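Worked example 2:
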Amino acid sequence: MTTPTVFSFGPFRLDQAACRLVRDEVPVELSPRLVDLLRILVSRPGELVTKESLLEALWPGVFVTENALTHAISDLRQSLGDSPSQPIYIQTVARRGYRFVAPVEVRLRQDPAPIVTPEVLGEALEPYRAWMQGRLQLETLSIAALPGALASFREAVRLAPRDALARVGLASALLMQFEATRAAGRPDAALRDDAVRAAREAVALDSSSGEAWATLAFVLVSAAQFDEAAAAARRAVALEPGNWRHQFRLAHASWAEERLRAVDRALALLPDFAFAYSLAAMVHIARRAMPSAETALARGTALQDQQAGRPVKFPAVGLHWIAGLVTLARPDGALDALEHFAREAAGEATGQVYGAEFVVNAWHGQGCAHLRLGRPEAAAAAFGEALARQPLHARSRLGLSLALERAGRADDASRAAASVSEALAALVEGGRLGEAGLVSAIESTVAGRFDDANATLERLLTVAPPGQTGWTIPIEPLLTPLHGTPGFDRVLAMLAERAA
């Protein structure tokens, strides 16, 4: 006996019994829940399917908010290459639900679907449940959620050791744990290396998975393996060009014009993804195209402000810190810069993975702004706030020494300056050689050795692999005394050429 379980629409074919979606005979990677969501919609073409019925069908007996359904619809649209504003497949009916608007052809499957008992189905769903729980925890970017996410993905791998997506989730959770350690100044390289290993295992298990390749790209950037990272991201985009995550990870792994093109594609697919604007701003700053940087940052900071305090996926941080640096680079921008830095620092309460490091940078920025305004005591207090959160923050140790010197506290300034070597050693130990080179140049600048500072920066850009190393140089506040010197003009020209 046959059953009508194959749905065709546009270039897609959904085989319900096989739990598989293909586009022009090429598999489209969908989680089981998204397959279920698509099946419900295509089985009722042209009909309004209410939010309530979808929540009950997809999360039976589990309390979830409509936000979970909104995210699922968004992910499904991205996989289909659909747009909420001009839908080809899924139309939103405001406040009520969704309607599948494309013509659907239903035909009989020619082989019988296997008989699945409730017990077998329950066992088959266990890895998926663990994976989904981990993903929901991870998408909050909350430090507090990381242990639970990591445990969930480890369980998914245990239950489904040959499943590539389980390894993808594990790699992502390990990377987030690694990123959380960066705020302390001594990143745990073992976590990063484990993340790379899990991502490579995911690719080995399923080389046709765009998500596996994109995740490998993401973790390789943190391991400073930029060429391989960019190649992996390009592979992900080639497999699934309509996935905004892949486009963003290509932007993250690449530089210059390739990054800007990937940012544009990511934002076309997901216009409210604020992190993409920060990636574009970095390229514009390196090129000294400040109006373009300011335009990107204005959009990004607006999104960061909109998301503040709201339960959204991938809440934005860091945009106000970059905007503060750009504003501080103006002759009269110190007060406005303080406002940006204060907004960034106010995000500390959210406990976001990347937020801790940006909060430290924001306090450092406030210290630099107070120095610009001739307030050495206020500057020393701000640098102290940064160091209270990250004692090995090298730039803040340098800033503190400068503030104390200007406040007439020579002995305290000397002690602060002497402590910079320890922070530099920690950067080198953690593999952050680009940051270490920048700090060395700032140290020479603060000491008045401008030729040494320029030579250090020039050497840094000469030996650094192609990429974003040194992108803050044009707006680094403690390098301001170098502006106008011939050596610094050469450094800026080198940086702009790398970003061309």
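Residues 111-122 have pLDDT under 50 and may be disordered. Strands lie at 6-9, 12-15, 20-23, 26-28, 48-50, 90-93, 97-100, 105-107.
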